[in-house]
Amino acid sequence: MKLLKKRSITFLCICICVIGATHCGKKQEDQSNTARSVEQVMDEQINSEKGNDQKDAKNTENVQNEVEKSNEDDSSDSDIDYDLTQMNSDMVYATIYQLMVDPDDYIGKTFRIKGTYYAAENPNNEEYYHCCIIKDAMACCAQGLEFVWGDGSHAYPDEYPAEDAEIEVQGTLEAYKEKNDDTTYCRLANADMKIIE
């Protein structure tokens, strides 16, 4: 009887060790696969950032062609150079990204965009920056475009929508610099804004 009890306990311990070892091995394998996939993603992003000039030129051309096509489709608003409300979310995101990367090509052009409202305070001078935030199709990435509503005389927060409200903004892209800052910023100037309900 003692021998049977001893063998049962030994067998049970061996089973627990085998199950534990197998499970640990699987966890380690999953972690190494995850690490490999993270490394692959990072390598892909680094390679894409280093850039292939031909690919960037082609992407820029595709974005501009899509923008021109959407503008041709909307002939009633001939005063708008880039109507991003007529594009799918990926193209809108790509266009805004391209605008941020190479703003000189877009200065003085009129844009219409749709997104969510966001206000950010500058702690140095207590000014507010008003933005229209645009997300990509997966809603994992976002680009924002600052705008100045009308002549900039609208009072915040009284005259502005609540944060995360859906808005449509139309204005002319301009570049500007803040006092004591060499960075060039872009925004839609003299913009019209309406809340989308």
What is the third-level CATH name, the topology of the domain at 79-195? Answer: OB fold (Dihydrolipoamide Acetyltransferase, E2P)
Overall geometric form: elongated
CATH architectural designation of the domain at 79-195? Beta Barrel
β-strand amount: 25-35%
The CATH class of the domain at 79-195 is Mainly Beta
Biased composition (Acidic residues): 73-82
Biased composition (Basic and acidic residues): 50-59
Region (Disordered): 45-82
Task: Outline the structure in words.
The protein is 42% helix and 28% strand. It has a domain at 79-195: Nucleic acid-binding proteins (OB fold (Dihydrolipoamide Acetyltransferase, E2P), Beta Barrel), CATH 2.40.50.140. A hairpin with a 6-residue loop joins strand 5 (166-177) and strand 6 (184-195). It is elongated, with a radius of gyration of 27 Å. The chain has helices at 2-50, 53-73, 89-101, and strands at residues 82-83, 110-122, 127-135, 142-149, 166-177, 184-195. The protein has 3 helices and 6 strands. The chain has 197 residues and is α/β, with parallel strands linked by helices. Helix 2 (53-73) crosses helix 3 (89-101). Strands 2-3-4-6-5 form a 5-stranded mixed β-barrel.
SSE diagram, text form:
Elements: H1 2-50, H2 53-73, E1 82-83, H3 89-101, E2 110-122, E3 127-135, E4 142-149, E5 166-177, E6 184-195
Parallel strand pairs: 1-2, 4-6
Antiparallel strand pairs: 2-3, 2-5, 3-4, 5-6
In short:
Residues 73-82 have a biased composition (Acidic residues). The chain is of the alpha/beta class and 197 residues long. Helices cover 42% and strands 28% of the residues.
